[in-house]
Amino acid sequence: MQFIYSKDAGERILNLNTRDYSHIFRVRRVKKLEVLSFRNLIDDMIYRYNLVSIDRKTATLELVDSKMLKIEAKKSLHVGWCIVDPKTIEKTLPFLNELGVSKISFVYCEYSQRNFKIDFKRVEKILINSCEQCGRSSLMQIEILENLKEYMTLYPQSKIFDFGGKKIDKNTTCTSFLVGSEGGFSKAERELMQDADIVSLSNPMILKSQTAVLYASILGSL
Known about the structure:
By secondary structure, the protein is an alpha/beta fold.
């Protein structure tokens, strides 16, 4: 663990509630005498605290010092991902976070099941835990878009991953891309994308949606 998240990091005094106390000292097994590093994942600062007092359920810490320590990917990468099963999304998010993806736009495409709903609180918790592990100093941005037309209006320069497109490799510049849901894009959606930059992976196998997202994110981060 590179740091501990607290929305109040930066305050002179931090009071840890029962849940945070248990997470830090019992789950994470942080030593009670060491200086603890905190981030709020907003200002790119890292704050160090000493333990002042502790009892069976709570702890009080006092700020020792702070410094600017911005840790993020060198390239800004935007991912559009047509919504698939939320369980699949949740399993994939930590990997995308570690790769430095700046923003994900989840899109309800025609082959996305409308009963699939993104739990923002759960997503935020997953991303916070990932940041604590990999050291990233800011939270990934997340948005939900209702259809492909809305996505194309907001991100007209985004590359679209689909069959039959130009092959991409490590030399391809890609700062924004969209991957379809399981089943790809409908005929109507392909007509909507006819003027877009369509690309495909050099891998000849048919990839699952999450595999394609990870593949493209790795290429985009190179």
